[in-house]
Amino acid sequence: MTVTGDPAGLSVSYLLATTAGGTGRHVAMLAGGCAARGAAVHVYGPAAAGPWLARDAAGPAAPGWDFSTVDIAARARPARDFAAALRLRRLLARDTPGVLHAHGLRAGALAALALALPGAPRTALAVTVHNAPPAGGPAAAVYAGLELIVARRADAVLTVSGDLDGRLRRRGARLAGRALVPAPAAAGASPAEIAALHHEFGGRVIVVGVGRLAEQKGFGTLIAAAARWQQRAVVPLLLIAGEGPLDSELRRQAGMAGVAVQFLGARHDVPALLAAADVVVVPSNWEGQPLVVQEALRAGRPLVATRVGGIAELTGGDGALLVPPGEPFALAAAVTRLLDDPGAAARLAAAARARAALLPTGTAAVDQALGLYQRVCRPVIGRS
Q1: Domains of the chain, first to last
Q2: Could you report the per-residue pLDDT of 317-362, keeping only the tens digit for each?
Q3: Which residues are within 8 A (CB) of 302 and not within 5 positions of it... i.e. 6 or more apart?
Q4: What is the pTM (predicted TM-score) of this model?
Q5: Which of these, 6, 89, 9, lies nearest to 44 by C-alpha position?
């Protein structure tokens, strides 16, 4: 999708419910890119998102970009959600954007509510669905309800993977294609940085996982897989970088299984950490389009990942060894295969670098977004 007109004069607002994962970085990239092309840009979200954007994305410093708080709860809270919708309606009446682009189902459903309230402006609604639902339970039922709201009210819905595309299509959504969600550009790790990491971890063979320590990311499966390679002649050191609610539980699991693992917490040298890995593992139970897969491909290291969400679309058929989610035996077998066969590992690393060259760019993502905005704004303008 390409830009079909001059973005100058276009006003667009973004709504996000969280900056977790890649959502915050994606919104910051789109907001900054659209503002740089002459669009007036406003960003709305929880209070915690403002400092995050200012610190990590330099968002509010971009020309035409300002941030306003909308207190979106992490879970459904009827009274609080209605108050947030009223707040959002007031902001939309103040800023009068041609399009409101909500990111995530919570944000999308809240945006639909705000635009349905009396006095709301005639603003087009676009929603990007970034993540797949959890498997079963009350959360899955809530997710399905949010999907219905977004499908019925949004003027355009973007998804990040084929399975999400199918889910929203079945709900009757006006699908506008696959969202381009590039990982933030990062300088490649230097040989000195990689050597320093090898020294930090004692020159051992290292297997690296990066992500939020939450059920979605499947690190419990990774630790169970690591328990299967503890009897090897050369035992790899498992490194897990990230923070999250399962930190204590995962540490207990690793201790009980006798796994050689270091929990690194938040790291600011993830590109170097990935580049230093003998094998990178993404063991997710469910996903949309995880940025860490793109980062691993760019690092050019052998990658083992689960076949969930949009991962296979990123890696293609040869950019990673893909295994079913939640199966420690299959995950351990894939990792040890690469550790035992340097030739296979080198071929996979080369294939990862080739796939990295095909990944979307920030420019392409902004082009796509502006093309969508200009398309959905026209019927709204015509009704006013």
Answers
A1: 11-182+361-383 (3.40.50.2000), 191-356 (3.40.50.2000)
A2: 899 999 999 999 999 999 999 999 999 999 999 999 999 999 989 9
A3: 278, 279, 280, 321, 338, 344, 345, 348, 349, 352
A4: 0.87
A5: 89
